[in-house]
Design brief:
mainly alpha, about 75% helix
C-alpha cells in the first residue's frame, strides 16, 4: 500500500506554496527600494519643471 496522506493538510500546504509563489512574483514586479522611489520622484519633479518652463500661455487666456 501507499503512504497515507491527510488531504486537508496537503491542500493547505499547496495553498501556502501558491501564495508564496504569488508573493515572490509581486515583489519582483512591484517592489522597489526606498532609494529607487526617491530617485524616481526627483526625476518626475525635474521633468514637470522642464515642462512647466516650456509651457506657453495661449492668447485666449489673456483676453478679457
Amino acid at each position: 500500500m501507499g503512504t497515507v496522506i491527510n488531504l486537508r493538510q496537503a491542500r493547505k500546504r499547496k495553498q501556502r506554496a501558491d501564495k508564496a509563489a504569488q508573493a515572490a512574483e509581486n515583489r519582483a514586479r512591484f517592489g522597489r527600494t526606498k532609494a529607487e522611489r526617491a530617485t524616481q520622484a526627483k526625476e518626475d519633479d525635474r521633468q514637470s519643471g522642464v515642462l512647466k518652463g516650456a509651457f506657453r500661455e495661449s492668447s485666449q487666456d489673456n483676453v478679457e
